[in-house]
Amino acid sequence: MSQNGGFESACRALAEADPVLSTFIDAIGPCRLTPAPDPFVSLVEAIVSQQLSVKAADTIFQRLVAICPRSLVTPKAIFSIPEEELRGVGLSRQKIAYVKDLAERWIAGEIRPKEFHRLPDEEVIARLVAVKGIGRWTAEMFLIFALNRTDVLPVGDLGLKKAVQRAYRLRKIPSPERIQKIAEPWRPYRSIATWYLWKSLNNVTKGS
């Protein structure tokens, strides 16, 4: 979806559908949700980042980039790098198994990112969660940030839960079912609405 056309119409539709979102759209400004350039790199980075701070994850990922031939994180590069070298950059044995499995499936053609663009969201998720270390949340983030899908609602995301609780003045963290009900008017732009809610946390607490 293009920034100049689609996002503007999406924001108008969301503002009309939900006054809470309208306030955030006015305060935050244009949506800056842009697709990641390389789907394999996106998934490797997501695996590396699991259960780590942003700073720690970025440090390890940059070390990983440095040991790849020509600093290119490709399936063949990840598959060929010895486990000892991957351990040396800070990856756990479990995460090494995850990225190796991802690379092997990519090389074997079990994961064909070009096909993802014509598949529905749930089919993409089903294919990705078959890979070790990729759960539904990681697959949903891939849909939003790598494929630029506009109607993804990651109800298990803690940031979204906190943002919905704060924005809609709920007494406790909302259940997935409650979020789905609140988000019904956001269709078909639930990814865009989610982005604004994530940003609203930063906007309120600083100015995750």
From TrEMBL:
Residues 48-202 form the HhH-GPD domain. This is DNA-3-methyladenine glycosylase II. Belongs to the alkylbase DNA glycosidase AlkA family. The lineage of its organism: Bacteria, Pseudomonadati, Nitrospirota, Nitrospiria, Candidatus Troglogloeales. One of its GO terms (biological process) is base-excision repair, AP site formation. Keywords: DNA damage, DNA repair. The keyword Kinase does not apply. The keyword Phosphoprotein does not apply. It catalyses: Hydrolysis of alkylated DNA, releasing 3-methyladenine, 3-methylguanine, 7-methylguanine and 7-methyladenine. Its EC number is 3.2.2.21. GO terms for cellular component: cytoplasm; protein-DNA complex. InterPro entries: Alkylbase_DNA_Glycosylase/TA (IPR051912), DNA_glycosylase (IPR011257), HhH-GPD_domain (IPR003265). GO terms for molecular function: alkylated DNA binding; DNA-3-methyladenine glycosylase activity; DNA-7-methylguanine glycosylase activity. It is an enzyme of class 3 (hydrolase). It comes from the Bacteria.
